[in-house]
């Protein structure tokens, strides 16, 4: 199924790197959004002791 220019393992290895990059980007976005949410909650006073 591969042509003469691309050996068999190379596309599979490239797709593994793409999947790894997508997972890393998703984790980064998730962590950043969680940090922003915590910052907004902190600034709104949700973590302060009730008086």
UniProtKB/TrEMBL annotation:
<keyword id="KW-0812">Transmembrane</keyword>
<protein>
    <submittedName>
        <fullName>Uncharacterized protein</fullName>
    </submittedName>
</protein>
<feature type="transmembrane region" description="Helical">
    <location>
        <begin position="16"/>
        <end position="42"/>
    </location>
</feature>
<keyword id="KW-0472">Membrane</keyword>
<keyword id="KW-1133">Transmembrane helix</keyword>
